[in-house]
């Protein structure tokens, strides 16, 4: 069987220039690096958070917010905050003692 003198014609050509292939390689490496850095950062945030936030108990799954006024915790269980009002009036007419 005679050998074909034009072996290059039988090989498939990629059609992409070496410059484009190099750019795609760097782009892929950059994407992998960004995903890796984001994963490491997310893992650090997860690992450094308190256990109660990472794994809350089912019977107490909400957070409690504490309001600080001039550096002191405000107690909303006092009588001034528990005073009722007539439900027939609009809330814009309520008197606040702030």
Mean pLDDT: 77
Low-confidence residue ranges: none
SS class? mainly alpha
E-strand count: 2
From the alpha-carbon coordinates, what is the Rg to the nearest angstrom? 34 Å
Total helical segments:
3
What order do the SSEs take from the amino end to the carboxyl end, as H and E? HHHEE
Shape: elongated
**How far is the N terminus from the C terminus?**
102 Å
Q: Sheet bearing the most strands, described?
A: 2 strands, antiparallel
Strand content: under 5%
Neighbour order of strands in the largest sheet:
1-2
Question: Residue share in helices?
Answer: 25-40%
Give a description of the structure:
This protein has 98 residues and is mainly alpha-helical. Helices cover 40% and strands 4% of the residues. The chain contains 3 helices and 2 strands, in the order αααββ. A two-stranded antiparallel ribbon has the order 1-2. β1 and β2 form a beta hairpin. It is elongated, with a radius of gyration of 34 Å. The N and C termini lie far apart (102 Å). 0% of the residues are buried. The model has no long low-confidence stretch (mean pLDDT 77).
